[in-house]
Amino acid sequence: MKKILIYVDSMNPSGGIERVIANLSNQWINHFDITLLVKDDKNSFYPLDKKVKYCTINCPLKINFTSRFLRGYGFLKSIIQSQYKLKIYLKKEKPDYIYTSNIINSLEILMQSREYSKKLVISEHGSFYGYNSVYTRLKKYIYPRAYKLSVPTKMDTGIYTKCGYPAVYIPHLSTFTGANEQSKLKNKIVLNVGRLTSDKQQLKLLQLWKKILENNSTFDWKLQIVGKGEEEENLKNYVINNHMSNNVEFIRPTENIHEYFKNASIFAFTSRNEGFGMVLLEAMSFGVPCISFDCPSGPRDLITDENGFLIENNNADKFVEKLELLIENYELRKNKGQKAYEMANNWDNEAIVKAWVDLFRGEV
């Protein structure tokens, strides 16, 4: 049985990347010998199959987000500290393939030995347009040297293929499969789930929400924002300063996120750029219609005119118009929600797993 090593900084966060890795691990274990190697204390926010080997090199990544310099220094320090322990681990375990989910971990593997380039499978999670100049230069060096580059969106797969990278299109697995309980779409709740960062643009969502509140003096709908991140204080201050506390609720990441999807009537998404948009698919799994900017590049692979609204990128007035329409029209929510539910629950997880099995067996 082939040995697949998944190398990632941590599984502690509640983000989309960690969700994807947990989903893949729990499926791959039925076909391969899977080891999940992290740098920290081996705590995973998302459940992992007991058959997945969970190991650590005890070299936690510590990042200071107060400045780009300190952030870069944190990554550089982590690379240097992890090299020796990683070298010992790889020589001992001799994996057939090594899966990474970010550029830094991929670089760490390539720095070990050229031979690992034939074993390195990189999974792209962000939009092609979501990287700064430093990361873009690293991609140009790293991606051509990988065995395969897995890309979950059609647009980015095309771009990376044109760049000459070994890109293959494999969308992410659906988290909530089977006949989930559909939302009744009658609760007066608009939901947003994601890291509280400038890229996710929850501040812009709050600004749009403020416009809706100004248009409706007796408005009793609530915007629920589930997540944590470096923008949390700024977002909460904006809500307080604009007297929106009765209509906005901040919720910490929770293992029971399905309860929030199930109780929501609309899912609102305002990211500047997005890879796959896992939370969109998760919301649709409960029959919740989604509204999102048509940012590059993930939302357009999931949202159609039938199951939600895909708004011209950064067109704030149109976003407010369509969000108000969903709020005011229950039948519209119901019709679009049903189409969202059908699309999400027909998501072909089996075909996605097969694509990965074929890749690791050298058939792609």
Question: Can you characterise this structure?
Answer:
- With 364 residues, the chain is of the alpha/beta class.
- It has two domains: 3-174 and 348-360, Glycogen Phosphorylase B (Rossmann fold, 3-Layer(aba) Sandwich), CATH 3.40.50.2000; 189-345, 3-Layer(aba) Sandwich (Rossmann fold), CATH 3.40.50.
- Helix content is 40%, strand content 15%.
- The chain has helices at residues 16-28, 68-93, 103-112, 133-142, 154-162, 202-215, 232-241, 257-263, 278-284, 316-328, 330-345, 349-360, and strands spanning 3-7, 33-38, 53-56, 97-100, 120-123, 148-151, 167-169, 189-193, 222-226, 248-251, 266-269, 290-293, 308-311.
- The chain has a seven-stranded parallel β-sheet with strand order 3-2-1-4-5-6-7, with helices on both faces.
- The two termini are 18 Å apart.
- 39% of the residues are buried.
- The model has no long low-confidence stretch (mean pLDDT 93).
| Low-confidence runs | none
CATH superfamily of the largest domain: Glycogen Phosphorylase B
Oligomer: single chain
* Shape, principal axes of CA atoms: globular
| CATH class descriptor name of the largest domain | Alpha Beta
C-alpha end-to-end distance: 18 Å
Number of separate domains: 2
Structural class: alpha/beta
Q: H/E element string? A: EHEEHEHEHEHEEHEHEHEHEEHHH
- The CATH topology of the largest domain comes to Rossmann fold
Please state how the strands of the largest beta sheet are arranged side by side: 3-2-1-4-5-6-7
Helix content: 40-55%
Under the CATH scheme, the architecture of the largest domain is: 3-Layer(aba) Sandwich
- Gyration radius, rounded: 21 Å
Helical stretch count? 12
Q: Classify the beta-strand content into a percent band.
A: 15-25%
Largest sheet properties: 7 strands, parallel
Overall pLDDT: 93
